[in-house]
Each structure stands twice: as C-alpha cells, then as structure tokens.
Amino acid sequence: MSKRRDAAPCPCGLPASYQDCCGRLHRGEAQAATAEQLMRSRFSAFAVQDAAYLLKSWHPATRPPSIDFEPGLRWERLEVLDATEGTPFHTKGTVEFRAAYSAKGGQSGEMHEVSRFVRHDGAWVYLKGTVQ
Computed over its alpha carbons, how large is the radius of gyration of the chain? Predict the structure, then answer.
C-alpha cells in the first residue's frame, strides 16, 4: 500500500486515516473486535482491492476460491444502517448496509445488503449476505 493511500481517509467512512483504521486489519496488526468493524474493513478491502484480506475474513464454508474485481468499478461510500449482536461478547451478528459505487461510463449505483457474521477460530468472519 502506498503512503499516499495510507494517509487518505479510510474508505469505511469512519473519521480516521486508512492506515490507522482498516489498514491495521488489512496488514494483520489487529483483528476486528465486532461484526460491524469487520464489515467496514471488508468494504475498505473491496475499495483498495485487497483480495487476500477478503478471502482471509470469509468463512471457509462459504469462501470462494478467488476474488475477481470488476474492472472500472469503484466502491465509494459505506453507510451502516443497522447491526444486531456482533459485539465482542457474541458469536454471531448481522450488519445491514448500503454501499455506493461508480462504474465505467459514469454509471453509479448502490448495493443494499444484510450480511451475516460468525466467529471462526475466535475471529469474526463473513458468512453470507442477502441483497435487499
């Protein structure tokens, strides 16, 4: 990751630099403490195209063999709408969110999903999502 990206605001929308926010999780310096934090870090991983982190934070039962990023698609903004359970004291949780994107040709849109997370080997992982 370049120093320029590290100093930029975190794609997840929290008021911190990428380096101090989701970058720490992507580099393996910390683990997500909550399902929402994992959701935010996964959105940021899509934004910076960190396939290794996405695969690592995906439950082995539902993890795809690889991640292919769509050329020209940019994830731009995350809005967390709701979170249930998913705290350091839970073993499962859900996060509802909207993620805005832009694509080639000036098209834009958003994805609305309810994601399910569980703990696996002590760490929060993405299990699956339902697009709304």
Answer: 14
Two structure tokens written together for 12 = 């997840």
Question: For residue 117, what are the domain limits?
Answer: 3-131
6-28 tens-digit pLDDT: 689 999 999 999 999 999 999 99
Helix (H) or strand (E) holding 22: helix 22-26
116 alpha-carbon distance from chain centroid: 12
- For residue 73, CA distances in Å to 19, 37, 101 come to 23, 23, 7
Q: Which two tokens stand for residue 124?
A: 């929060």
pLDDT over threshold 90, residue 2? no
Task: Give residue 11's region: left, alpha or beta (phi > 0; psi -120 to 50).
Answer: alpha
From CA 101, how far away is CA 10, in angstroms rounded? Answer: 15
CATH at 48: 3.10.450.50
User: What's the DSSP call for residue 104?
Assistant: G
Number of domains in the chain: 1
Which letter does DSSP use for residue 96 in this model? E
